[in-house]
Specification:
The chain is of the alpha+beta class and 231 residues long. The protein has a domain at 116-197. The chain has 4 helices and 10 strands; from the N terminus they run ααβββαββββαβββ.
Length: 231
């Protein structure tokens, strides 16, 4: 009987060893990867903002007394300058250096809103400028034509001309009367409701590149190179 009990004990011990080996094998399978598996496994996308472009290098010949900024951002609700008032201004400068020439940005981008009332004031008291359908703008003002005062409503698209000005040229003119009257006097009053606006007071070197009509004004995009921010 003793040999039978010994045999049963050996069988039980062998079974426990087999179970232990199987458990160890399963654990190893779970925590390990096949050859090359780590590289082939899908990677989670980086969190927003985690990817950044390599930092720019300072320009050669930077003096000890100079300060170099790889990028510089300015956000302002309102900016008032000589002859100009802007809202919701965002300026982004790259490769900015302080030196004998002042504060100079190798590249500068400015996005700003030119208020409708600032443009309307250039056309005279009582003039109203507002947004219209289809990305257009409307000018309403009183003009004098053929010896009479007329209330004119002109609507047109807004573009940037070759001189870098914001220009609104009327596509339709309404004098509040019959169509033939508007057509007959349209050429006379057209120039009186045409907008040609220069955005003044910004650093020299910035050029108006694009403009769009918003509900509160004209959204302008200006860009320039080697722009002196502070003399």
């Amino acid at each position: 009987m003793a040999w039978i009990r010994a045999k049963d004990w050996l069988i039980g011990a062998a079974g426990m060893v087999l179970v232990l080996l199987i458990a160890v094998g399963i654990l190893w399978w779970v925590i390990s990867d096949p050859p090359g598996g780590a590289e082939a496994a899908p990677q989670m996308p980086p969190a927003p903002g985690a990817e950044r472009s390599p930092a720019a290098e300072p320009p050669p010949g930077l003096r000890d007394e100079d300060v170099w900024l790889g990028d510089l951002t300015l956000d302002a609700g309102s900016v008032v300058m000589a002859g100009s008032a802007l809202r919701d201004v965002r300026a982004v400068g790259q490769d900015v250096v302080t030196g004998p020439g002042g504060l100079v940005a190798a590249q500068l981008t400015v996005d700003a809103t030119v208020p409708f009332e600032a443009v309307a004031a250039e056309l005279g008291d009582g003039t109203v400028v507002r947004a219209a359908d289809g990305g257009q703008a409307t000018v309403v003002r009183t003009v004098e034509a053929l010896g009479r005062e007329l209330r004119v409503t002109a609507t047109g698209t807004v573009e940037v001309d070759g001189a870098g000005r914001l220009v609104l040229e009327p596509r339709s003119i309404d004098l509040g009367g019959p169509d033939f009257l508007s057509q007959a006097t349209g050429a006379v009053v057209r120039r009186l409701v045409t907008i040609e606006h220069d955005i003044e007071g910004l650093p020299e070197g910035l050029v108006l590149r694009d403009v769009a009509v918003q509900s509160d004004g004209f959204r302008a995009n200006l860009r320039g190179e080697d722009v002196r921010l502070v003399p």
